[in-house]
Write a structure and sequence with these properties.
alpha/beta, two-stranded antiparallel sheet
Length: about 325
C-alpha cells in the first residue's frame, strides 16, 4: 500500500521504539530453556514473537560461578531459533563480574541479543561505562541496544537524563531495591501488589520513570509482581500500569504471568475495531481530516489510533483485513 501509516504518522515524542509488551526473566538453566521453548511455541500460536526472554546473569549466576553462567547464557542465545528475541541481564557496572559478563556475552553472542539489560544504573556516567564496555566487546560497536534498571531514589531523580541517552531504549523500575533503599521509610507493603500502587513515594517514582521515557521516545517497563500465583492480581496490576501510569511493557518472572500481561497491555476488541475504521478512512482520504461516529479526526488522532493497531499487532491480536495488510508490508520499527 502507498502512504503507509508508519511513514506518514511521524513526530510523536513517545513510541519511537516498539518492543514486545512483556519481558520474561529467567536465570536457572532448565527454566531458561523452557522459556525459550515457550517463546517459540507462543510465536507459532500468535504469528509473532509476543514477549522477550531475558537470560539473567545477575540473579541467575551462583556466587563464584559467574563466568560459567555467562558462557551458558551465550550458548543458549546462539542455539535459539532464528526469530527468537533473546536478551541478557549482566551484573551492575560496579560489580566485579561486570566486565567479564560483557566480554563473554557480547563477545560470543553479541549479534543474538535484542538488548543488554544493565541493573542498578545510578547516572548517565553508569550508562556511558556500560556502553564503553559493550562496544569494546562487540564486533559491531554501537549495534547492541541498552536497557537499564533504576532502583534507587537518586536514580529515579536522574531518570530524564538517563532516558535522554541515545543508546538507552528502555528504563525498568526496580521496585524491591527502591523500597529497600529508603531504610525502612517505606513499609514492606510497598513491595506488594496493592501497596506499590498506593504508596506515594513508590507511585511517584513509577510516574517519573514513565514520564522520562515518554519525553524521549523510550519504553517504560513496569516492575515485577511477586505474587506470581495470583493471576487476577497480576492482571489487575498490569492493567493499572498500562492504563493509569503510562507503561507500555512489564516484567514477568513466571511463565504463568505472560498471558495476563499480554491481555492487560493489549487493546480491547472494540478499541481495535474503532482504530481500524479510522485509519482505513484516513488512508482513503490520503490523511486529510475525516469524521467518524460524529467526531472529527486528523493526523494528531490518527497517530494515536495507529499506535493502538501497532500494540494490537505486538500482542498477537487479530486485526481487520483493511489494516492487517499494513503489517504484512512493513518491517518492525527499531528495537
Amino acid at each position: 500500500m502507498n502512504q503507509h501509516p508508519a511513514a506518514i504518522l511521524l513526530g510523536a515524542q513517545g513510541g519511537a521504539f516498539a518492543l514486545p509488551v512483556c519481558d520474561h526473566y529467567s536465570g536457572v538453566e532448565v527454566r531458561m530453556r523452557k522459556s525459550l521453548q515457550l517463546q517459540a511455541d507462543m510465536a507459532a500460536e500468535f504469528g509473532a514473537c509476543v514477549f522477550d526472554v531475558t537470560l539473567d546473569c545477575e540473579d541467575g549466576a551462583p556466587v563464584g560461578g559467574e563466568v560459567e553462567h555467562a558462557h551458558l547464557v551465550s550458548e543458549l542465545a546462539l542455539a535459539a531459533a532464528a526469530g527468537a528475541r533473546v536478551a541478557v541481564r549482566v551484573h551492575a557496572v560496579d560489580h566485579p563480574a561486570f566486565e567479564a559478563d560483557v566480554a563473554t556475552v557480547v563477545g560470543r553472542a553479541g549479534h543474538r541479543w535484542c538488548h543488554v539489560m544493565v541493573p542498578k544504573v545510578e547516572s548517565v556516567a553508569d550508562v556511558e561505562r556500560a556502553v564503553a564496555a559493550i562496544d569494546a566487546a562487540s564486533s559491531r560497536p554501537g549495534s547492541v541496544p541498552l536497557h537499564v534498571l533504576v532502583e534507587s531514589p537518586a536514580a529515579v531523580h536522574r531518570a530524564f537524563d538517563i532516558a535522554a541517552h541515545p543508546r538507552v531504549l528502555s528504563i525498568s523500575f526496580g521496585l524491591m531495591d527502591f523500597v529497600s533503599a529508603h531504610g525502612g521509610a517505606i513499609p514492606a507493603s510497598g513491595m506488594g501488589v496493592a501497596g506499590q500502587f498506593n504508596h506515594p513515594l513508590v507511585l511517584r517514582a513509577k510516574m517519573d520513570i514513565a514520564s522520562a521515557c515518554h519525553a524521549h521516545g523510550k519504553v517504560p517497563s513496569h516492575c515485577v509482581v511477586t505474587e506470581f500465583k495470583d493471576a487476577q492480581a497480576l492482571k489487575a496490576a498490569a492493567t493499572q500500569a498500562a492504563q493509569q501510569l503510562g507503561y507500555t511493557r512489564m516484567w514477568s518472572i513466571h511463565p504463568d504471568q505472560i498471558r495476563p500481561i499480554l491481555e492487560a497491555f493489549a487493546p480491547q476488541a472494540d478499541e481495535i475495531a474503532r482504530a481500524a475504521d479510522i485509519i482505513a478512512l484516513a488512508h482513503a482520504a490520503q490523511w486529510a481530516p475525516v469524521q467518524h461516529a460524529g467526531q472529527l479526526h486528523d493526523r494528531a488522532s490518527y497517530r494515536y489510533f495507529w499506535q493502538v493497531l501497532e500494540r494490537a499487532h505486538r500482542t498477537g491480536r487479530p486485526l481487520p483485513p483493511e489494516v492487517d495488510a499494513f503489517f504484512a508490508t512493513m518491517a518492525d520499527r527499531p528495537t
